[in-house]
Design brief:
The chain has helices spanning 9-22, 27-34, 38-51, 66-82, 92-99, 103-112. By secondary structure, it is mostly helical. The longest helix has 17 residues, at 66-82.
C-alpha cells in the first residue's frame, strides 16, 4: 500500500493508481477501489508511461499568491478613480479580464477586503 506521512491525498491517489496498474488490476477494479474514474486512470497511466515519475508531478503547482493579486487590484482601482472612470460600474468579469485574473479571484478579494468596485 502507498503511504507517506504528510503526503497530499492527490499524490497518494496517483501512487496507489500506478501500483494497482503494475499489479495488473483492471480499470474497473481500480476505479471502484480508489473511487475514481476511468479517464483519470487513463490520464495518469499515460503520463507515467510517457514521462515516468516526473509525469506524476503537478504541471501547475499551486495558485498565484493572492497578495500580489490584491495589490494589482488595489492599484488598478486607484488608477481608475484618479482617471475619473469611476462614474460607471465595472463587473468582476471585466476587471478580471483587464488584470488577466479570474473573476472568482477578483470577487474573493473584493469581498474579503475593504476594496470596492468602482
Amino acid at each position: 500500500m502507498a503511504y507517506a506521512p504528510g503526503a497530499k491525498p492527490r499524490d497518494t491517489l496517483k501512487a496507489r493508481l500506478i501500483l494497482a496498474l503494475a499489479e495488473g488490476k483492471s480499470y474497473a477494479q481500480i476505479a471502484e477501489r480508489l473511487r475514481t474514474t476511468r479517464p483519470t486512470i487513463a490520464r495518469w497511466k499515460h503520463r507515467f508511461l510517457e514521462w515516468g515519475i516526473d509525469g506524476l508531478k503537478a504541471r501547475h503547482p499551486g495558485r498565484k499568491p493572492q497578495v500580489k493579486e490584491r495589490a494589482r487590484l488595489a492599484n488598478w482601482l486607484r488608477r481608475m478613480s484618479r482617471t475619473g472612470k469611476s462614474a460607471g460600474r465595472f463587473s468582476y468579469r471585466m476587471i478580471a479580464r483587464t488584470l488577466g485574473s479570474s473573476k472568482s479571484t477578483v470577487h474573493r478579494i473584493l469581498r474579503a477586503g475593504k476594496l470596492r468596485k468602482v
